């Protein structure tokens, strides 16, 4: 076989690969616009065709039948009235005849000879009658018919005479006699001067007379039939008495004749049917014109719609690229325009998040053993107990969280996850200098414990929670030092959809200490969930009026997400410290300290913003500053959210921690909700919200949890969106809004430095020995004592080496009194302690 030079054998799939390269994987397949236009054309044209068929085959015949029936009904009714009037006229003539002197004399004398003469004389006045009888009534009031019919033709005439003589209704009746139809009517008359002298007149006509009544005055227009309903032996039947004329083969119309057992049937003549049909003409010309207009209209619209669509797409792309104002003239393209603008805004605001690198660690961290593959057996020197907090792991990165410690903790987490049936864990990390090192070691440990890893990159903590709600992996680890200084770091852990608390933390510590880890080989993939998070929030929150918001990310992990989120919600954003920098050069990541919010307050006031927000290092806390520069404490922020949530959900539970104002509980109760006081700690709060089904929760430290419309985890960015939604629908600014809320004099959270090793023992001693005579103690979390005009709290911090205190009263004097009582009791159990209140 010859091989041509320069020719290569085509490789399978080569053509499609080249096509994908040339078109960037986007190809035109079919023409949906043309298909949609043709479908629309068919939607209009098919009904027109069906309408034409309906008119021709169903509507026109039905309309013709209805018109013929209407004409027939009129003829039948007119003829029935005519015959009824004729019968009434005949009765009137009879009544007039029997009032003649001759008839009255015969009635008075009741002589048979005279009666025969009167009958003959009266008959001359009724040429249409075949017979007329005058029957005197006896003293008993009835005609003497005993012993036979007394000259009457049959029992029908006898029955007519008897009924009328007894003052019973007696309608005329037709019957056959000797082969022909006759009709008789009876009428009773009384002598005007002799009331006891009465007689019955019986008048009989033949079928010719009845047929003459059927003749229509203007000539025969069809067939008229006179029928009589006969009742015999439990069965009713209609019999034809007389008829006149001829009709077409159509249904007959019927009309009853008043005061008779008769009715008229009318069948129109062929001429009338033809004339009625000529008045029914379906609008075929109009329908044909409409079809032609539809065809021309769709051809023109297809041509114009292609041009309009091309023009709109060009304008949308230009508007998105240059971020200029844009009016979209095709409403269906508005979502595309919005999404395209969102993407360009995200690209401009965030750039490529994979390129965000934490600042270089300025501390002398322990050397990283990148070749570490496993750690076996018990820890030689033991793990620092101080890093295992109530619901997370926290410590100084370069001393407490060296590589071996991190590896042991990661292996323990992977081991416990496997025991719970969780194969995959998400891992996220914040922007601290030590986070990437810890993330690398932690990931290796989890993989070598046999678990798989989804790496979601540098994100705030709420996005780790979001990932475990969104993805199939319901477990994860967030590497973050939260609100602590730059040298700190730690881990927040979710297992099987729940943020772990004290019991599981202790189990992690035990396994990490003993080294009894599961073994295996896991796999790692990277997944960007930022876009999905933004889309989810934007689809949930609606801003009625654009707001101006200052966003202080404090160089934390929200810096590349929070401004983009608020911009996509329609707000004007003024970013402050939004560059991710793990050294936190501008302020401390702790937003609970109001000294860290000075720059935000100044920025809000100078820019005349509606409000400002500050996030802690990992974005699960938020603090709000009003347009006037007032810092809103979280229990006041909870009042704003409670008004919104509970008003729309009467009876809803709202969980809040022991550090919150009791005004919050009173407001929730007043709105029809149920306040639930609980322990401080984001993991503990989430557990309580799941237990109670609460729609809202919040801690004084700034953690806000939404169970309504959201997933129930603490998220400072989502809380900001909900606040903007509420304010954008109000006629007042946030300062005016909170002015309507209950007010008390209170302190911020006060830290009393106590070493971690001593704080819980000291707190236990305080709870056992403190006595508040006028107060009601509650040891749910530390000791909270409620007084008539306020309350005080002292508890051991779960996150730092300190006791935390907070006080509230109706006035300054009451506040000082409560602080004094706590100061005295605390000094009694710890005389050497420096008490800063």
TrEMBL record:
<dbReference type="InterPro" id="IPR005841">
    <property type="entry name" value="Alpha-D-phosphohexomutase_SF"/>
</dbReference>
<comment type="pathway">
    <text>Nucleotide-sugar biosynthesis; GDP-alpha-D-mannose biosynthesis; alpha-D-mannose 1-phosphate from D-fructose 6-phosphate: step 2/2.</text>
</comment>
<keyword id="KW-0460">Magnesium</keyword>
<keyword id="KW-0812">Transmembrane</keyword>
<dbReference type="InterPro" id="IPR005843">
    <property type="entry name" value="A-D-PHexomutase_C"/>
</dbReference>
<dbReference type="InterPro" id="IPR016066">
    <property type="entry name" value="A-D-PHexomutase_CS"/>
</dbReference>
<feature type="domain" description="Alpha-D-phosphohexomutase alpha/beta/alpha">
    <location>
        <begin position="634"/>
        <end position="741"/>
    </location>
</feature>
<dbReference type="InterPro" id="IPR005844">
    <property type="entry name" value="A-D-PHexomutase_a/b/a-I"/>
</dbReference>
<dbReference type="InterPro" id="IPR036900">
    <property type="entry name" value="A-D-PHexomutase_C_sf"/>
</dbReference>
<feature type="domain" description="Alpha-D-phosphohexomutase alpha/beta/alpha">
    <location>
        <begin position="386"/>
        <end position="517"/>
    </location>
</feature>
<protein>
    <recommendedName>
        <fullName>phosphomannomutase</fullName>
        <ecNumber>5.4.2.8</ecNumber>
    </recommendedName>
</protein>
<keyword id="KW-0597">Phosphoprotein</keyword>
<keyword id="KW-0472">Membrane</keyword>
<keyword id="KW-0479">Metal-binding</keyword>
<dbReference type="Pfam" id="PF00408">
    <property type="entry name" value="PGM_PMM_IV"/>
</dbReference>
<dbReference type="InterPro" id="IPR005845">
    <property type="entry name" value="A-D-PHexomutase_a/b/a-II"/>
</dbReference>
<feature type="domain" description="Alpha-D-phosphohexomutase alpha/beta/alpha">
    <location>
        <begin position="532"/>
        <end position="629"/>
    </location>
</feature>
<keyword id="KW-0413">Isomerase</keyword>
<dbReference type="InterPro" id="IPR005846">
    <property type="entry name" value="A-D-PHexomutase_a/b/a-III"/>
</dbReference>
<dbReference type="InterPro" id="IPR016055">
    <property type="entry name" value="A-D-PHexomutase_a/b/a-I/II/III"/>
</dbReference>
<dbReference type="Pfam" id="PF02880">
    <property type="entry name" value="PGM_PMM_III"/>
</dbReference>
<feature type="compositionally biased region" description="Basic residues">
    <location>
        <begin position="1"/>
        <end position="11"/>
    </location>
</feature>
<dbReference type="Pfam" id="PF02879">
    <property type="entry name" value="PGM_PMM_II"/>
</dbReference>
<comment type="similarity">
    <text>Belongs to the phosphohexose mutase family.</text>
</comment>
<feature type="transmembrane region" description="Helical">
    <location>
        <begin position="38"/>
        <end position="60"/>
    </location>
</feature>
<dbReference type="Pfam" id="PF02878">
    <property type="entry name" value="PGM_PMM_I"/>
</dbReference>
<feature type="region of interest" description="Disordered">
    <location>
        <begin position="1"/>
        <end position="26"/>
    </location>
</feature>
<feature type="domain" description="Alpha-D-phosphohexomutase C-terminal">
    <location>
        <begin position="750"/>
        <end position="822"/>
    </location>
</feature>
<keyword id="KW-1133">Transmembrane helix</keyword>
């Amino acid at each position: 076989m010859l091989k041509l030079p320069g020719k290569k054998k085509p490789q399978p799939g080569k053509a499609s690969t080249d096509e994908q390269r040339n078109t960037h994987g986007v190809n035109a397949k079919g023409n949906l616009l043309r298909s949609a236009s043709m479908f629309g054309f068919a939607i209009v044209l098919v009904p027109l065709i069906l309408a034409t068929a309906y008119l021709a085959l169903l509507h026109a015949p039905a309309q013709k039948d209805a018109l013929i029936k209407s004409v027939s009904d009129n003829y039948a009714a007119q003829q029935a009235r005519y015959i009824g009037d004729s019968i009434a006229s005949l009765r009137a003539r009879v009544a007039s005849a029997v009032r003649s002197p001759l008839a009255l004399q015969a009635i008075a004398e009741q002589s048979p000879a005279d009666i025969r003469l009167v009958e003959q004389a009266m008959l001359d006045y009724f040429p249409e009658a075949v017979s007329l009888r005058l029957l005197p009534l006896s003293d008993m009031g009835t005609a003497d018919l005993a012993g036979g019919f007394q000259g009457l033709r049959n029992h029908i005439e006898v029955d007519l005479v008897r009924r009328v003589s007894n003052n019973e209704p007696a309608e005329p009746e037709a019957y056959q006699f000797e082969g022909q139809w006759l009709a008789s009517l009876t009428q009773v008359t009384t002598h005007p001067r002799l009331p006891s002298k009465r007689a019955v007149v019986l008048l009989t006509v033949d079928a010719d007379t009845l047929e003459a009544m059927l003749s229509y005055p203007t000539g025969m227009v069809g067939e008229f039939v006179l029928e009589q309903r006969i009742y015999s032996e439990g069965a009713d039947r209609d019999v034809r008495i007389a008829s006149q004329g001829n009709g077409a083969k159509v249904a007959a119309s019927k009309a009853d004749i008043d005061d008779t057992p008769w009715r008229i049937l009318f069948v129109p003549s062929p001429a009338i049917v033809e004339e009625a049909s000529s008045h029914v003409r379906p609008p075929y010309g109009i329908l044909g014109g409409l079809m032609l207009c539809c065809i021309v209209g769709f051809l023109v619209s297809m041509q114009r719609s292609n041009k309009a669509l091309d023009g709109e797409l060009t304008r949308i792309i230009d508007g998105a690229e240059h971020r200029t104002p844009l009016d979209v003239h095709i409403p269906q393209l508005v979502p595309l325009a919005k999404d395209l603008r969102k993407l360009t805004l995200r690209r401009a605001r965030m750039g490529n998040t994979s390129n965000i690198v934490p600042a270089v660690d300025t501390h002398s961290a322990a050397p990283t053993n990148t070749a570490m593959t496993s750690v076996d057996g018990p820890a030689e020197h033991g793990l620092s107990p101080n890093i295992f907090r109530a619901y997370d792991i926290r410590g100084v990165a370069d001393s407490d969280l060296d590589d071996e410690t991190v590896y042991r903790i990661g292996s323990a987490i992977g081991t416990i996850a496997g025991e719970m049936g969780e194969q995959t864990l998400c891992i996220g990390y914040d922007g601290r200098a030590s986070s990437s090192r810890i993330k690398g070691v932690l990931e290796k440990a989890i993989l070598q414990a046999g678990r798989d890893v989804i790496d979601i990159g540098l994100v705030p903590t709420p996005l780790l929670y979001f990932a475990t709600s969104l993805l199939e992996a319901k477990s994860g680890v967030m590497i973050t030092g939260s609100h602590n200084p730059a040298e700190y770091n730690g881990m927040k852990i979710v297992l099987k959809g729940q943020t772990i608390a004290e019991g599981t933390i202790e189990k992690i510590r035990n396994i990490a200490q003993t080294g009894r880890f599961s073994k295996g080989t896991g796999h790692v993939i990277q997944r960007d969930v930022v876009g999905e998070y933004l889309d989810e929030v934007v689809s949930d929150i609606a801003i009625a009026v654009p707001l101006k918001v200052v966003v202080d990310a404090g160089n934390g992990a929200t810096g590349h997400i929070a401004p983009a989120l608020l911009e996509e919600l329609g707000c004007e954003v003024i970013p402050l410290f939004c560059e991710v920098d793990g050294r936190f050069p501008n302020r401390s990541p702790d937003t609970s300290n109001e000294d860290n919010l000075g720059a935000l307050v100044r920025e809000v006031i100078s820019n005349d913003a509606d409000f400002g927000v500050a996030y802690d290092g990992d974005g699960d806390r938020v603090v709000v500053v009003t347009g006037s520069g007032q810092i809103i404490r979280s229990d006041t922020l909870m009042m704003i959210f409670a008004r919104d949530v509970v008003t729309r959900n009467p009876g809803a539970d709202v969980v809040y921690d022991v550090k919150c104002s009791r005004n919050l509980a009173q407001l929730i109760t007043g709105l029809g909700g149920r306040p639930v006081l609980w322990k401080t700690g984001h993991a503990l709060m989430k557990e309580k919200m799941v237990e109670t089904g609460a729609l809202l929760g919040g801690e004084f430290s700034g953690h806000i949890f939404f169970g309504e419309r959201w997933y129930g985890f603490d998220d400072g960015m989502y809380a900001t969106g909900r606040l903007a939604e509420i304010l954008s629908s109000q006629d007042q600014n946030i300062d005016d809004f909170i002015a309507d809320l209950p007010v008390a004099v209170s302190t911020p959270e006060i830290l009393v430095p106590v070493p971690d090793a001593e704080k819980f023992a000291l707190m236990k001693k305080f709870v056992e020995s403190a006595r508040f005579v006028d107060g009601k103690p509650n040891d749910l979390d530390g000791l909270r004592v409620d007084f008539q005009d306020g309350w005080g709290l002292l508890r051991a911090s779960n996150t730092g080496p300190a006791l935390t205190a907070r006080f509230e009263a109706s006035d300054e004097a009451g506040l000082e009194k409560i602080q004094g009582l706590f100061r005295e009791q605390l000094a009694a159990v710890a005389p050497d302690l420096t008490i800063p209140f």
